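@channel sequence for tomorrow's demo:
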Amino acid sequence: MGQEAAPARPADVRDAALRLLAQREHSLLELRTKLTRRAWPEALVDDELASLAEQGLQSDQRYAESFIRSRVSRGYGPIRIRAELLERGIDRQLAERSLRASETDWLFVAADWYQRRFGDHSPLDFKEKTRRQQALARRGFDHALVRELLD
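structure tokens (generated this afternoon):
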């Protein structure tokens, strides 16, 4: 005869969440998704995550700040970072506030990535310039910044 699974305990959910948070910051949505995927009851997961947030052990604010630093260091722009934050369950206002609070020099970030990607070589023709503009746009830099960088 098969053994029945032990009932889910709040301490088990909490321990799993804390293990995930010990590895890196997680948004509330990410934690919820990872924990419910492990077949724990959603109500139990929600209760434990609310408790962790209340105690300051999980914070979407901290997550957003950490995420922004990580993406900026990899050469991504504000448009892409904002979109990725929203995908991860960060509220639009929090994403906007966090991006402003980062006080990032987006022109410097774009120029640094551009230099690493394309070196000192100017585009040879219009087609190449367009390709480079599109690469910067895909990384999340707006049209005005791209024009400022390439003109």
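heads up for whoever presents: The two ends are 74 Å apart (CA to CA).
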